[in-house]
Amino acid sequence: MDIREINIRYREYGSMEQLSPEDRELAEAALKAAGNAYTPYSHFNVGAAIRLSGGEIVTGSNQENMAFPSGLCAERTAMFHAAAQYPDKAMETLALAAIQNGELCPVPATPCGACRQVMAEYQTRAGRPMEILMVGAEKIWKFSRVDDILPLIFDSLRTQ
């Protein structure tokens, strides 16, 4: 038996002012998108913004439904919209931000497992890493690729 270890690296920023202009623009788009969330049950508004390989920014927000789990997370709303409208463009960076009680959450909200798996699929489809930016009021985390937030990605159905 061998014991193995999985390590991830990420950058942590203390404020949006520390981000590059491109990442700040994307973070601000995610914050704005959170304002479009439909969350009458959880009151947890999440916004996502994706920068595509052509420079376009596509946004999405979480959408709840009384018939739970018929709603959809902000990340998948944005990714599915991007793929439907720009099928030949790679998703370069995805930013997400969550607002609760009218305030940006202090610690970044993290994507659910289903959203991480969908991110992994689009990253694989593009054949290049997708960066992930998680925005909080007190800290911001930036990951260089989806593998860092979803080690051991499910890809067993791929043909070799």
What's the gist of this structure?
This protein has one domain (10-59, 74-148): 3-Layer(aba) Sandwich (Cytidine Deaminase, domain 2), CATH 3.40.140. By secondary structure, the protein is α+β, with helices and mostly antiparallel strands.
Strand fraction equals 15-25%
Shape estimate:
globular
The number of domains: 1
SSE succession: EHEEHEEHEE
The pLDDT mean sits at 95
Distance between the termini: 28 Å
CATH topology: Cytidine Deaminase, domain 2
Can you give keywords for this protein?
160 residues, Cytidine Deaminase, domain 2, 7-stranded mixed beta sheet, 3 helices, 7 strands, alpha+beta, globular
What is the fold's blueprint, element by element?
Elements: E1 10-13, H1 21-34, E2 44-52, E3 57-61, H2 74-85, E4 91-100, E5 103-104, H3 113-126, E6 131-135, E7 140-143
Structure in words:
This protein has one domain (10-59, 74-148): Cytidine Deaminase, domain 2. It is 25% helix and 24% strand. It is built from three helices and seven strands, in the order βαββαββαββ. It has helices at 21-34, 74-85, 113-126; strands at 10-13, 44-52, 57-61, 91-100, 103-104, 131-135, 140-143. Strands 1, 2, 3, 4, 5, 6 and 7 form a seven-stranded mixed β-sheet that branches. β2 (44-52) and β3 form a beta hairpin.
